[in-house]
Structures are given as C-alpha cells and as structure tokens.
Design goal:
about 0% strand; about 160 residues; mainly alpha; single chain; 10 helices
C-alpha cells in the first residue's frame, strides 16, 4: 500500500477536517511538562517521519481493529521503542496513544455507519476495534451527545 493512501486513511480517521492537520508535527512545540526525561528531548525529524509512516501503514492495514492493541504491542509490532512512540504522540499529535487510538476508531465507526447503514452497532463496534457495543455507545454519547442510532438518524 502506498504512503499517500496510508496518510489519507490516517487523516480521515484522526481528523476529518484536514489531512495536513492530522499528520503535521511541529517539532518546535514544547512537550507537556511532566518532569520526565522521555518528554524533554525532541524526536529527530527523520524519526518523526519514520514513526508517522509506520502508523499510517498500520492504520491503512486496519490495525486499529484489534481491540487488544496497546502501546507495548503496537511498539513491538512496528519495531519502534515504546518511549519514542509515546514521545511521538505527545510531541507531534498533542495527545496520548489511547486518545489517538480512540479517535481513529471513532472516526472509522462513523465512516462505516455512513457507508453501510444496514450494519448493526454490534458489527460496527467489533469491526472498528471497540471492546463492546456499550463502549461504542458511551463514546458516541461523549463525543456527539447522542447514541449511534440517533447519530445515524441525524445523518440521513
């Protein structure tokens, strides 16, 4: 799968407004002040590009569908040091891995609902990596202020 397609998938999943915003990393931006050594060092530009590319390919390959994935399993799978991956999310995405992954899954669920209106919420939740249908409902209530069913009705 080519890099451009991977970037588009990640961009669609992370930020429906703009591809540029989701893959952009301002290396001059200061990291959150946690007092830890791992966030005080900026990742080199070449490493940022490598990690971004690896994540783009992982998203394009639908890796987010695995509901058991966590930072450690992803870092092992991508062969990226866990500390570096954490720094990437902090410095370049201004978020944590869990929040980033939740956004990927949430946007994938909305896209799947739009493209497949006949899919049940059970199918949507399992196909997008949510651990359960109730978790999908909870995320929709938090982010959209309504259930997935109500959100679908609003989109129709």
């Amino acid at each position: 799968m080519d890099k451009e397609r991977g970037n588009n998938l990640t961009a669609d999943a992370v930020n429906a407004e703009s591809e540029e915003e989701s893959v952009k990393c301002d290396v001059q931006q200061s990291a959150p002040e946690t007092g830890s050594e791992q966030t005080s060092k900026q990742l080199p530009t070449s490493r940022i590009a490598f990690i971004r590319s690896a994540l783009d390919h992982w998203c394009a390959d639908l890796g987010y569908k695995d509901c058991t994935v966590n930072m450690l399993t992803l870092s092992n799978l991508l062969e990226i040091n866990k500390t570096e991956l954490s720094q990437y999310f902090s410095q370049c995405q201004n978020t944590t891995f869990r929040i980033w992954l939740g956004e990927i899954r949430f946007n994938a669920a909305k896209k799947m609902m739009m493209e497949n209106p006949d899919f049940s919420n059970d199918t949507i939740s399992s196909e997008c990596g949510f651990s359960s249908r109730s978790y999908l409902y909870r995320v929709f209530k938090e982010k959209e202020g309504c259930t997935p069913v109500a959100w679908r009705d609003k989109q129709a």
